Amino acid sequence: GLLLGGRMEFFMKITKVDIYMLDATAQRASRRPICCRVWTDEGFYGDGEAGIAFDYAAPAGIGMLQDISRLVIGKDPMRTDELWERMFKVSFWGQGGGPVVFAAISAIDIALMDIKGKVLNVPVYELLGGKVNDSIRCYASQLQFGWNEDVGPRGTAKEYADICKYAMEDGYDAVKLDFTLYDRDKKDIPNRDCEGFVSTDFYNMVEERIVAIREACGNVDIIMENHGRTDVTSGIKLGELCDKYNFYALEEPCTPLRPEFQKLIREKVRTPLASGERLYTRWQFLNYFKDNSIQLVQPDACNCGGISECRKICTMAEAFDVKAQIHCAGGPISTAAALQLTAATTNFAIYEHHFRSTQPAIARLGKYDYQPVNGKFYVSDRPGIGQELSEAAIAEALVHVTVDEP
What we know:
Order of helices and strands: EEEEEHHHHEEEHEHEHEHEHEHEHEHEHE
Mean pLDDT: 95
Oligomer: single chain
Largest sheet: 9 strands, mixed
Number of helices: 13
Number of strands: 17
């Protein structure tokens, strides 16, 4: 950079992008984190993550990142909004929406924000208006899978209560569970059994688990996570239980593809509704806000459009009296990006700490292992996002591709 007229002028350009599919070892069957490292000719680099690590989209993320990267090679990494618009519009498919293209855009945007913070020697939250949340309350997320070293699906009502009590002993006063994934014998429940006119046995199984948690854990805040496995009819039915037992929120009670469906549920259920991890850009969130069908918005910085776009979504949500929780279910880069955003989010409600993030197989992929203390996070003041890929993550990557020309 050059100092001109008392102002630092930067003439950096992006030289190459390294793209990785990381090896989550013990979680490899369900988690293949897709990350990138954007390099500049000034020696600065930034790391980003594409939020499609789990289940079936990871290979598509590698391919999309290769193509999207070509749109930023040779450009100034400090012009983050300009590059976001370029990826959004020049890609053509950006204006069509969807997880794959926006996961790639998100990864690049996070890496660019990381670079900007490092160049200016400040944490990203300073670029977003400064810290407003010093202590970040977390909920223990997806406890049906276990918590910390206590791994394994839950089946009986007592097992659901015990794992919640275990998380509370670890310092958490809020939990999230999917009551629809496993039956009492820990076997998978088919999607069709969660839709429409659910059986009395299914309904009773969910209520048994809730009652056991309430008896064992008292007034712990509970979020019911449905993962879009329920529809309008069954979503309202389980929403009745949320109302009866004073739940904190009901998450993804129906498919996110039809905003009007969630509005129908909201009209029948008093418990606040949460959604957003499968919505992309401010445009897809807008109708939910206008319909008052989301009370807790959950954009994922790694697939909604990056830190830049996630910030805009949270700001727009505030104008509709909607609280925000950054969705976070990926690798260490995802956690770092979510924490930087959360630190600067004025309408913040609560933070998700996912079961997978407590596991060594995920934690080892980052240079630093960020974990809550007594159920609360304290955000790093390191420059940029405050995290980068570990040497082991890079050395043992399942796939590594370099893009160095448009």
